[in-house]
Design goal:
This protein has helices spanning about 5-20, 25-65. With about 100 residues, the chain is mainly α. It is rod-shaped. The protein starts with a helix and ends in a 41-residue tail after the last helix.
Length: about 100
């Protein structure tokens, strides 16, 4: 009878497992190594989070346009005078009624 690929794999794995000898302190040693990794990994996570926050802050500063113009800069053009002479105010109106165009 011919063996299926699954049966051959099962036989190969069983042959390897049968050769393994487990020491009585294997499980506590495994747990100890896991604890050592967990203790040292906390700082790495904090450092990685701080680095990501710094990159985001830098990206915002660099890529987001300013909403407020710098001091002294406006969107309106400066007001310039056509004449070089100062303009004097006109005399106050002497009529009490409304001004009608075409009337003297």
């Amino acid at each position: 009878m011919r063996m299926s690929p699954e049966d051959r794999l099962r036989a190969a794995l069983r042959a390897q497992v049968d050769e393994v000898e487990v020491t009585p302190d294997a499980l506590p040693r495994i747990r100890g190594r896991i604890q050592e990794r967990r203790r040292g990994g906390g700082w790495a996570v904090i450092a990685a989070g701080a680095a990501v926050a710094a990159v985001i802050a830098l990206a915002v500063v660099v890529f987001v346009p300013d909403r407020v113009p710098p001091h002294g800069v406006t969107d309106r053009p400066p007001v310039t005078s056509v004449t070089q002479e100062p303009v004097e105010p006109s005399a106050p109106a002497t009529t009490a009624g409304p001004v009608v165009p075409g009337s003297p």
